[in-house]
Amino acid sequence: MRVNINVNGEDVTADNVWPGESLLYVLRERLGLPGSKNACEQGECGSCTVYLDDVTVCSCMVAAGQAEGRAVRTVEGLAEGPGKGGDRPLGAVQQAFIEAGAVQCGFCTPGLLVQTDDLLNRTVDAGHGIPTDSEIREALAGNLCRCTGYEKILDAVHLAASRRADTDTAGSPA
Amino acid sequence: MPATTRTVTDLTSTTKDGIGASPLRPDGTLKVTGEFAYSSDMWMEDMLWGATLRSPHPHAEILSIDITEALKVPGVEAVLTHEDVPGAKRYGLEFEDQPVLAYGKVRYKGEPVAIVAADHPETARRAMERVRVDYRVLEPITDSRRAAMDPQCPLVHEPGTIPDHPEYNQRGNRLRHQPIRTGDFTTGDPDAALEALRARADVIVADAYEVGMQDQAFLGPESGMAVPAEDGGVDLYVATQWLHVDQRQIAPALDLPQDKVRITLAGVGGAFGAREDLSMQIHACMLALHTRKPVKIVYNREESFYGHVHRHPAKMRYEHGALADGTLLYATAEVIVDGGAYASATPAVVGVASSLGLGPYEIPHARVDAYGVYTNNPPCGAMRGFGAVQACFAYESQMDRLADALGMHPVDLRVKNSMAQGSRIITGQEIDMPLPMADMLRQARDLPLPPDREDLPDPADSRTLPGGVAGTTRGEGVVRGIGYGVGLKNLCFSEGFDDYSTARVRLEVAGGEPVVLVHTAAAEVGQGLVTVKGQIARTELGVEKVVIAPADTGVGSAGSSSASRQSYMTGGAVRTACHAVRDEVYALARGRGHIPEGVGDDDLTLTGGKIVSRARGALVSLADLLDDGTVVEETREYHHRPTEMLDPTLGQGSSHTQFGMCVHRAVVDVDVELGLVKVIALDAVQDVGKILHPLQLIGQIQGGSTQGLGLALMEEIQVGDGQIRNPSFTDYLIPTILDTPPMRIEVLEHPDPHSPYGLRGAGEPPTLSSTPAVVAAVRAATGRALTHAPVRPEDIVGIPL
Q: Which residues of chain A neighbour B735 with C-beta distances below 8 Å?
């Protein structure tokens, strides 16, 4: 079958999709976007997390056909500004994860970045302030990381949140 | 003089982002943009998908395999069995006992039997359904104690098919039996000696302990791509821990010379020991060579549970006798680790479990017997902590029990019997490096405690309680406990193994500035070695710009990214190669007249991109010296000091290269009615000799601590009748961010005089001590013995299941 999706702002088409394929498979194997990761493919680890129409989902649990005509945003779409991938300036969440030491093997990172971006959208960007540790832990409870023990991830989220708070303040009318 | 030349006062300044700093990891940007190419991300236009048909039985005879119907599935390009293995039919890390594809028999559930290449993973799956294998099912051997002790137990491997290693005391299903005897156990009748020691002891504690089968649970599944080459060889892109040991095993199976199997490290999504053995490597290469097309294999999570070795489950019996003042008099231990169907690293695991079997305590009379056995359970091999984890849970549990029996604080008992520099472990090996164990224990005890529950802003906030937002309690039935753990870990390979590393370092000028290229075959598995290699090159060569070449077999072996050894070994190799480059640069400068008469190499340093004389200041910049295109390149091997095999009778010998230690203090809240645990704090003190990268180091210790927390409270592969019952992340639980507490890490730097920069491997020690610390805290809260790791809810509430 053919699937039409808006991925990271661009309308794309995947042909010859077997109906049993997941959105994750189509992104990784047919659309050249392997950033979303295939750690468990059963909705337990969160490493394939993407936005589907502004809601974060495990893309391994979404059939490709369910994404027909919808908008998907992946880790590849998190960087800010024009250009492709690493040529673009990193987003605050991406930068914070590197600086805080929240990236080791990095396999969980794409999912955590998307989920953290969503958390900050709902908290600091929505004027609800920087999330507390408890809020961060709840928000990221569906994202497994085997390397870090999560402490540096908490640091990264705090760092990104404070920077986004600064940006939001700087950008708001006086 | 160029404007960039610094004054002599800059001479003591270190190069930016050298050792001791925390530069950003060079692969970080690619990892946060989704562009870092992991092994499962490999893709080529005309590639095929490989898949593996596995045995449904833990033990069976293969009567026949019929692939006819599978080959008829449209889109299938190859179906291969053992008959298609071009060369050696078996491979293995230590013993070549594991079939590339099963023949004659299958010995564990999940053993590869046939492989398929097809145009789509679903096509491959359908083809596998059509491979007809007739089995005659046999009774599996699943009891590791019976396999170790019962001479009548049927054999997992037919006599004569396993390599003969007399030094391992092989017998029946025993892969290795390592005894260790000291003090009164070395002479006369050991049973009489034990009775005499018991009579002298004021307090005796004894129990049986178990550690469950833990999974490494890396997130990046086993995967890679094999590409057939024009020369008849193959190029393999794979996630592994040791490129050259893969090459050593793959080439004979393919009947190719070693240099025709070229391996490049693809992005590795974690390892923790599970990638030390081969998984899909030979299979992908066979399919690629057969079809003449690139073949990609990616395991899914269920297959991953069958596709790699796990931490050995252990059954242990311990007895300690002490005097009334707490002085340890004797200890005995029997440790049986279940190696499963194939040897993997089991003999080396036995070497660690025995030599470190009683931990870092002064014990004058010791009797230890460690056994590694074959069974029809899933194969077990390397996992972070490697045999020391299992023993540590038992000996630390014993220390707590002894402290309780003596009415002593558990830290006081440990301090009283602690080893230190100059102590000898039970193998007679002297600890000839700092070991400030007593100070570390006191420091851990004195760390600030988290606030008591009643001092929290909202003591009934369910997020702070066991059970979390499930709201199973508002605090009723919740009891706090504190526990301690300490472990001793060998670092680098042991028992005579020369696990050298190789580094190639090149210095040249590009774009008007000096650039260093560092090339090794060392596997970056997430630990941050790529960062450390650059830091060492900057420090040694005084050049800021360092490029890390991809790891591949185009350079000599780096040994394994395991045993906490890469900073030591590959770090040592990079430093040695840098020194050779530096010496060559000095000779070059001398030949070109930049170094005045009478200025020896001892007076020179490479600093800020220049050759600098301590007495005379900057002499020449590297940019000027090498601007004619001169390239200085040196390749060096680095070897640690030699170690010895343990003797097979008394277990004596200096078998280890280096020792590492971590101390943990755990604070837990336990819902004693429901058996739920929330870890409130898991703080640690570790001596690393020298901190190379503070940020990455803390990440290693916190990550290792968390894996130990998982083993303490939730992680166990449930095996029944040789079958894995929970091969998924739904049923095999690893700690989430909700399960993991704040972790304060105190790092000490007492340099090891034998190692580069005085460093000690840091990755494994926290994985030993956190498990017993957490279990001890639960024990303190519940008053229950808790002899099984992980602790299960039914253990806490006391319901025998």
A: 149-150
Whether residue A34 and residue B37 make contact (CB cut-off 8 A), yes or no, is: yes
Angle B727-B731-B735 from CA coordinates, rounded to 5°? 110
> Across the interface, do B25 and A146 touch by the CB < 8 Å criterion?
no
Contact B219 A35 (CB under 8 A): no
Cβ of residue A80 closer than 8 Å to a chain B Cβ: no
Asked if residue B479 belongs to a domain, the reply is no
> Is B527 within 8 Å of A104 (Cβ atoms)?
yes
Quote the ipTM score.
0.97
Please tell me the distance in Å from A118's CA to the nearest CA on chain B: 16
Over residues A128-133, mean pLDDT: 96
Contacts of B210 (CB under 8 A, 6+ apart): B313, B314, B315, B316, B787, B788, B789
Q: What is the pLDDT of residue A169?
A: 74
8 Å CB contact of B703 and A146: yes
Q: Considering chain A, tell me which residue range(s) the CATH 1.10.150.120 domain(s) occupy.
A: 85-171
The pLDDT confidence band at residue A2, using thresholds 50, 70 and 90, is very high
- Percentage of chain A with pLDDT > 70? 93
CB within 8 Å of A169: residues ≥ 6 apart: none
Q: Clarify whether residues B384 and B510 are in a common domain.
A: no
Domain count, chain B: 3
Predicted TM-score (pTM) of the model is 0.97
Q: Which residues of chain B, if any, have pLDDT below 50?
A: 1-13
Please judge whether B270 and A107 are an interchain contact, meaning their C-beta atoms are less than 8 angstroms apart. Answer: yes
A137/B32 touch (CB, cutoff 8 Å), yes or no: no
As annotated, the residues of chain A forming the CATH 3.10.20.30 domain(s) are: 3-77
Q: Among B368, B389, B410, which residue terminates a domain?
A: B389
CA angle A40, B312, B359 (to 5 degrees): 125
pLDDT tens digits, one per residue of B553-601: 999 999 999 999 999 999 999 999 999 999 999 999 999 999 999 999 9
For A85-171, the fitting CATH number among 1.10.150.120, 2.60.40.1080, 1.10.10.10, 3.40.50.11310 is: 1.10.150.120
CA B369/CA B354 separation, integer angstroms: 7
By three-state DSSP, how is residue A63 classified? strand
Backbone angles phi, psi at B140, to 5 degrees: -80, 150
What is the token pair recorded at B7? Answer: 């004054």
**B518 and B553 share one domain:** yes
Q: Does A17 touch chain B (CB under 8 A)?
A: no
End-to-end Cα, chain A, rounded Å? 52
Answer yes or no: do B117 and B178 share one domain: no
- Return the residue in A104, A133, A136 with the most chain B beta carbons within 10 A, the one to mutate for interface testing: A104
In a domain, B430, yes or no: no
Q: What is the pLDDT of residue B121?
A: 97
**Contacts with B195 (C-beta within 8 Å, 6 or more apart), sequence order:** none
Interface of B with A in 440-469 (CB under 8 A): 461, 463-464, 469
Q: Provide the CATH number for the domain formed by A3-77 in this structure.
A: 3.10.20.30
Residue B25: closest C-alpha in chain A = A98
Chain segment A3-44, per-residue pLDDT in tens: 999 999 999 999 999 999 999 999 999 999 999 999 999 999
Asked if B109 and B45 sit in the same domain, the reply is: yes
Say which CATH number the domain at B203 has: 3.30.365.10
State the pLDDT at residue B163.
87
A37·B219 Cβ contact <8 A:
yes
Nearest to B699 among A20, A34, A101 (CB): A101
Alpha-carbon span B310 to B272, nearest angstrom: 10
Q: What is the CATH number of the domain that holds B232?
A: 3.90.1170.50
Q: Which domain holds residue B373?
A: 144-215+312-389
Distance from CA of B472 to the nearest CA of A (A): 17
Spatial distance between the Cα atoms of B727 and B513, rounded to a whole number of angstroms: 53
